[in-house]
Amino acid sequence: xxxxxxxxxxxxxxxxxxxxxxxxxxxxxxxxxxxxxxxxxxxxxxxxxxxxxxxxxxxxxxxxxxxxxxxxxxxxxxxxxxxxxxxxxxxxxxxxxxxxxxxxxxxxxxxxxxxxxxxxxxxxxxxxxxxxxxxxxxxxxxxxxxxxxxxxxxxxxxxxxxxxxxxxxxxxxxxxxxxxxxxxxxxxxxxxxxxxxxxxxxxxxxxxxxxxxxxxxxxxxxxxxxxxxxxxxxxxxxxxxxxxxxxxxxxxxxxxxxxxxxxxxxxxxxxxxxxxxxxxxxxxxxxxxxxxxxxxxxxxxxxxxxxxxxxxxxxxxxxxxxx
Length: 323
Known about the structure:
CATH topology of one domain: Thrombin, subunit H
Number of strands: 15
Order of helices and strands: EHEEEHEEEEEEEEEHEE
Largest sheet: 6 strands, antiparallel, barrel
Mean pLDDT: 76
C-alpha cells in the first residue's frame, strides 16, 4: 500500500537461500497438496528483497489439455468440371523482378527482429552470480578495472564474496563499498578477460520502452526476462529506509535477481534490480531498479573512477561517449 506521501510500504524480505547455490530441489510435503491461499487485501502486499534468504520449495506443475482443432472443415460443395467442358481463359500476370535493393534499404531498425535475444547475446557474459553464505544474488561488470555493481543486501556485511561467471568459472570478489540508502554495492575482481557492459548514462528511460532483466532468479543463472518500463521515480520503504527515484518494470524478477542489470533494447544498462512488490511471494509484475546514473554516482564515490556511457548510432551500434 502507499501512504499519503505516495511511498509504497510493506514488510522487507531477504532472498530465499538456495540449496546449494545453483541447485534447485523439489521438496515434498507430508500434508499432501497445498490448499489455495486465502484472498489477500492490499494491506498484505509485501515488498520483498531479491538477494539471498530461507529454505525454498519449488512446485512444478505441467499443464496439459485437449486443444480443439482450429482448422476449417473441408467444404462438401466441390465444383467439378464436366468432361469435355472447356475451361475459360485465365490471364496470367508474371510479376516483375524487383530492382536490386540499395545497401541503405537493407539496414533494419536496431534489433528489429529479436531485440530481447540480441540484448541477451550482448550482455550475458557481463552478468555474474554472487554467492554468499549459501545464498545467491546477481551483478554485472561495468568497467575495465574489474568492478561489479550489485545490491547492498546481496553482499550484506561481508568483505569477500564468491563471483561465478557465465562460463562457470569463479573468482574471489572484494567488497569495495556499500550504500544501504540506495541498496547499491561495488565488488572488485581480477579484471583479466572481462568485458564491461555498456551503460545508458545521461539518458532517462521512457515509460513504455523495452526493459530486459538478467540474473539468477531462484539460482537459475543467466536467466533472461523482458517487459517494459512501467513507471519512473517510484519510492519504496524497505527495512525502514525510503529508497527514491526507482524505475518500475513488469519484467519478471524474483529472488536471486537482486543486483542484476535492467537493460534497454540496445543492450545498455538502465538500472540495478533491487526489489519487488508481491502478494504471491513471486513476481507479480512489480519490479524496481535503481537508475544506472544514481548507481554509478555511488560507485564513483567508492572507486574514484567513472566509466563512459554508450550511445546508439543510427545503425544501432553503441558508441562510447565521454562522460
